[in-house]
Amino acid sequence: MKKIPFNKPSFTGLELEYIKSSVLSGKISGDGLYTKKCHDLMERVFGAKKVLLTTSCTHSLELASILIDLKEGDEVIAPSYTFVSTVNSFMLRGAKPVFVDIRLDTKNIDESLIEEKITSKTKAIVPVHYAGVSCNMDKINDIAKKHNLYVVEDAAQGVNAMYKNNFLGTIGTFGCYSFHETKNFICGEGGALVINDERFIERAEIVREKGTNRSKFFRGEIDKYTWVDIGSSYLPSDVLAAFLYAQLENMDKINSIRKNIFDRYYKGLHDLEKEGKIQLPVIPHDCVSNYHMFYIMLENEIQRNDLINHLKQQGITSVFHYVPLHSSPMGLQLGFKEGDLPVTENISRRLLRLPFYNDMTEEEQDYVIDSIGSFLRGKVLLSKELAS
Fold it and tell me: Are 28 and 238 contacting, i.e. CB atoms less than 8 angstroms apart?
């Protein structure tokens, strides 16, 4: 039996060479040689005012929450269909999440429902670019400008994707990237904060460096550094940055590989969609995806779970995605309940993510596609039939 994992980290070829170079440079702590190379590359390619590597996208979001001076009782608008970091990072500053339902097509926050959730306590909107496909950032930025709100893009899945010729993460006040091993460009654990408003650059460096002006000291701008603000240790090791730099140098190559995998899935499963058995991902015309994942929508939760089990029996690992935050144990403690966000709940029960990694072969993909087709066309028994 074939064994096809859900994800598999991959090399571009120079990761180990760059790691060795970083070690031989004599500085493998934060903001070393390769950290600066990563900053320079992303600022140049993405047209960002400032990029700062962090230890995770979670920490990038936490940095943003500090920079916008969140206070106890402030409110932050976000989707519930997202990873916990999207709201945890702001709750740590005392803010309360206000959840908005998502769109059926892109699984992104429904921009038409945001404004009705704004109150005098609202401080920020946190759009999450699901699967590397942009939210409607024109509408979101218009709402934010009208109500004097910050926009913090959770672009964990959106590195190198675009919306109307702008890279995700560079459109709001801040953008937050992830380089976790499950993302397109990786270093195991890592992230970056993209700062699009120059007013925040100096303070961001200070907060990221434990609340000190150490960055200024290393640039020779001051003769000693000291504690000047709140902060924490958000700097990744330069060894991780060295690994990441090899990946970032090959962003276009990696995107091309992932597009081919995405397109092969789409083509191979398109007949099932025409037969009404599944729904495939939607990429609006004004979005350029980075092909972060491939998912299918099944008829209901039972069918989705039966397919997961069937694929597992074939040696294929597929997974559902988020349990909605509003109906999670923590969400219930905050006063939310099942039924608050019907589209989110519907999507969560029906969505299935397929194996997707850079080294995936056509043979492996065809095996996944054929296994899904056999199940949905009734050539295998459902779990209830097997149990009877």
Answer: yes
Question: Residues 201-246: pLDDT tens digits?
Answer: 999 999 999 999 988 888 889 889 999 999 999 999 999 999 999 9
The C-alpha atoms of residue 339 and residue 327 are separated, in whole angstroms, by 8
Q: What is the pLDDT of residues 92-127, one digit of tens each?
A: 999 999 999 999 999 999 999 999 999 999 999 999
> How many CB atoms neighbour CB 47 within 10 A?
12
Rounded to an integer, what is the distance from CA 140 to the centroid of its chain?
18
CA 99 vs. chain centroid, Å, equals 18
162-163/191-195 β-pairing = unpaired
Separation between Cα atoms, residue 39 and residue 195, nearest integer Å: 12
3-state helix, strand, coil in the chain (%, to 5): 40, 15, 45
Query: Starting at the edge strand that comes first in sequence, how are the strands of the sheet with 287-288 ordered?
Result: 166-167, 162-163, 287-288
DSSP assignment letter at 107: -
Give the DSSP letter string of 220-240: TSSSS--B-S---B-PPPHHH
What 3-state class would DSSP assign to 327? Answer: helix
pTM of the model: 0.95
What's the CA angle centered on 17, arms 16 and 22, to 5 degrees? 95
In Å, what is the CA distance from 166 to each residue of 131, 151, 331? 17, 15, 34
Strands (E), 31-138: 50-54, 75-79, 96-100, 122-125
What is each CA distance from 21 to 36, 181, 230, 251, 349, in whole angstroms?
Answer: 14, 22, 33, 21, 47
Among 104, 111, 193, 109, CA closest to 156: 193
Radius of gyration (C-alpha) of the chain in whole angstroms: 22
Q: Domains in the chain and their CATH numbers?
A: 15-248 (3.40.640.10), 251-387 (3.90.1150.10)
Sign of CA dihedral 206, 207, 208, 209: positive
DSSP string, 12-61: -S-HHHHHHHHHHTT--STT-HHHHHHHHHHHHHHT-SEEEEES-HHHHH
Two structure tokens written together for 62: 């936490």
Q: For residues 279 and 269, what is the distance between their CA atoms, to the nearest angstrom?
A: 9
